[in-house]
Design a protein that fits this description.
2 copies of one chain form a homodimer.
Chain A lengths: L1 E3 L5 E5 L5 E5 L3 H11 L5 E5 L3 H8 L9 E5 L3 H20 L13 H24 L5 E5 L6 H8 L4 E6 L6 H4 L4 H12 L3 E3 L2 H15 L9 E2 L6 H9 L1 H14 L3 E8 L6 H14 L7 E8 L6 H21 L7 E4 L4 H10 L2 E4 L9 H8 L5 E5 L5 H4 L4 E3 L4 H12 L3 H15 L4 H12 L2
Parallel strand pairs in A: 1-4, 1-6, 4-5, 6-7, 7-8, 8-9, 10-11, 10-13, 11-12, 13-14, 14-15
Antiparallel strand pairs in A: 2-3
Helix pairs in contact in A: 3-4, 4-5, 5-7, 7-8, 9-10, 10-13, 11-12, 11-16, 14-17
């Protein structure tokens, strides 16, 4: 089996003595698949070399001692920048999450055409590498929006392969898709439509199916997509929590929480995560419920990413501003209403999830949101989940979560209030129901579904 | 018959001697309906008093001498501000045109709840005034997004009336509508769904029908909407063109154009009109086609509105910047590539439409865009229309227009190039086809449709 994804399971750096060291890569796909990969000796992972060290390490044989087979595609840095930063992150991510400020963006000019050609070329390089690597009839599982053209390109090269594509982010409506240049929208839809295409939820699958048919027109048949939701890796979470580092983090979080009620969130800093409105709702909660002042603390593990892009740097500044405002308004000598942790330290994020009384997951739009399942799976306090209707996970968890309307601050403040004041017995019943729903699917279930659909 | 709209057909100001003078009001509804009103003695127009002068003029009997009956609803200025600027212009307009920068807006907080109550109260005041005014069985035609709750409220007060609502702007998808607080989305849809609701195009009518059913759920029946497109008032346009003011404007525009090819646009400065990308496309055209430099001029009648809102002031500044850039880049001592006219002087805009060789109408989203019909209806040069797929008028005019993709600058530049270089005989054939399509419907047809549907 071959997994094809933009980011690989490892990145390589040089040790003090010049030898290469493999580190586990970041991102949700890697953390879900890596434990599975170790138990599947037939698995090869094809990904982009992200740095010169990656390329040199592979050339020096550093990939040989790893728990699973890794092949890296070398890419010219300028080409890779256009593919990844310009097309994938600044156009497709914003399009599929509904984040464009349309008055100003997107603008599809001649510079975009060059970037689009780079996107197609990088996809072609992945298809070529997979075609070279795959024995006859092999299963090839292509991941996400950075590689949307790979399925079509690979099928053209190797009709014998069993290829599936899986999208981890939302899909957009036909009206939104038509914001792309006409040929770009068509190429993206045609590649996915040529075979099995999977999504975390029925909502995104249906949206994709409608959109692809509208964009491709009546002459082109679109294979009905499949739905395969991912679940948390409970054993891996437990191992982190029980490690020395995990226990240290747990103590630090306990100290920060003192005996207060804990509202928690853990997110990459990203506009779609709706972090600012979350703090506005908390501010409103403290205003409306004086009894909560001093008794509650918001532990927010939110860590920067993509800070080289203006939009992300600006959003980070807006988060810092609103947090400062809330702490200035309500804080006392002994109490910081919000404690922000931007360390991107997984054991700390996990300790926060375990300690939380209420977990706020309020995205504007989200493919799944694995945190919404990891939180309930590892929580130790019968914690309540306040979950946005716009998170993919809402489809599975809605019956046991408190619903959040992500644009409605008043409603969100009310949801937090409801969650904090739920009677103990109802908390317990709800938490056990939630735990059952959140752990109903494992990474192995998800991978099994992909393999099965690739073969159909 | 009673027409209910936010803005009335006249506004009143005081003369030097203190007596009141009526001036024709602005906006598309007024310019389309006023000529009809004069020929219908049974018509009363109910609108908001926009200023203290309006209120005082009506009290002093200034409405008596007008060509049609006018009643004004007096509103507290603070209440009116919340209704009109906050809810109608900053929320509903942005929602229905897809203009929110969702990372930051909308935020539905406690201040919005107060504004929403003001919106409902103003709508109730209109419903009350219409109920007081209407004889039994009267036809009442309620206009647009400022008064979306009026149909439901008026039906509750007066089940005997024949009430229709007509939306002049686009309608949004269910996913977008759910950005509103749940009860707000439901109230808006329920009011329209309770009776005949009309739209300019099948696209917005279908969108409304889908959205209202999704928002209201299976228990509520939604009346299928009707489609009634508006057309230009050709006689009124001709009267302006033939007036002394019109002839002066024509000469001024001829002088500005010299013997050059004229690309034209005429728009209120408004993000949905996509004015900046239009100039970016023109810039690209001059870059790609050196032969056009000095031979073409872009006459742009774009006039400011709502400049008290930050978003509009910012957009105006962005337009001025891109125009300065294009003129700096390509201009010579004898040639300004873009001539901007921000005077909001209708005879001048009309003279530009008549003189244009190519008319650019490239909105991001637009209910109809009457300019796309007025331009071809009055043009004297076999002008070509470059029309966005996202303008409502595209549904009727597509066969005779050159298609514009509003986000795709390369494509738009190519469309302008095609339009400028069309062979003369094809220009003539196309222009006559376009004129036929653009004038197929008159304001009287539109009003007749509304009256008929109100009675069904």
């Amino acid at each position: 089996m071959i997994i094809v994804s933009h980011r690989g399971p490892y990145s390589f750096t040089r040790d003090a003595d010049g030898s290469f060291v493999a580190r586990r890569g970041g991102g949700g796909i890697v953390s879900s698949l890596l434990p599975l990969g170790a138990s599947r000796p037939d698995l090869t992972w094809l990904a982009a070399a992200m740095t010169a060290d990656d390329t040199e390490a592979m050339a020096a044989g550093a990939g040989d001692g790893l728990a699973l087979g890794v092949r890296l595609v070398d890419l010219d840095p300028d080409l890779h920048h256009l593919h990844y930063n310009v097309v994938a992150n600044q156009v497709l991510w914003f399009l599929f999450h509904g984040l464009f400020d349309r008055t100003r963006r997107p603008v599809f000019d001649i510079a975009f055409r060059a970037a689009w050609e780079a996107y197609a070329e990088v996809n072609e390089r992945f298809a070529e590498a997979a075609a070279d690597l795959a024995p006859p009839g092999e299963t090839v599982l292509v991941q996400d929006f950075q590689l949307m053209l790979v399925p079509g390109m690979l099928r053209a090269r190797r009709p014998d392969l069993r290829i599936a594509h899986f999208t981890h982010i939302p899909f957009c409506s036909a009206d939104d898709m038509r914001m792309l240049p006409t040929d770009v929208a068509r190429d993206l839809c045609a590649s996915l439509a040529s075979g099995p295409a999977g999504f975390h939820t029925h909502r995104w699958a249906a949206q994709y199916h409608d959109t692809a048919r509208a964009v491709l027109g009546p002459g082109v048949s679109v294979r009905p997509p499949f739905v395969a939701s991912l679940g948390p890796d409970i054993a891996a979470l437990a191992a982190v929590a029980d490690s020395a580092e995990g226990r240290t983090a747990t103590r630090a979080v306990e100290d920060a929480a003192a005996d207060r009620l804990v509202v928690a969130r853990t997110d990459r800093i990203e506009p779609s995560k709706n972090i600012v409105r979350g703090f506005l709702a908390y501010d409103r909660l403290l205003e409306a419920r004086p009894g909560l002042r001093g008794r509650v603390v918001f532990l927010a593990s939110v860590y920067p990413s993509r800070q080289d892009l203006d939009e992300y740097a600006r959003y980070t500044a807006e988060i810092n501003e609103v947090v400062a405002r809330v702490n200035d308004r309500w804080g006392t000598r002994d109490w910081h209403p919000v404690i922000l942790d931007d360390s991107d330290h997984f054991p700390t994020s996990l300790a926060v999830l375990r300690r939380s009384d209420v977990l706020l997951v309020n995205p504007l739009r989200d493919g799944l949101n694995l945190v919404a399942k990891e939180g309930p799976a590892c929580n130790r306090r019968d914690g309540v989940l306040c979950l946005s209707t716009e998170a993919g996970a809402y489809e599975e968890l809605r019956d046991a979560a408190v619903t959040v309307h992500p644009y409605d601050i008043e409603q969100t403040a009310g949801a937090l209030d409801d969650a904090l004041t739920l009677p103990l017995d109802e908390r317990a019943t709800r938490a056990s129901h939630l735990r059952r729903l959140a752990t109903a699917r494992t990474p192995a279930d998800w991978l099994g579904d992909l393999v099965r659909h690739a073969g159909e």
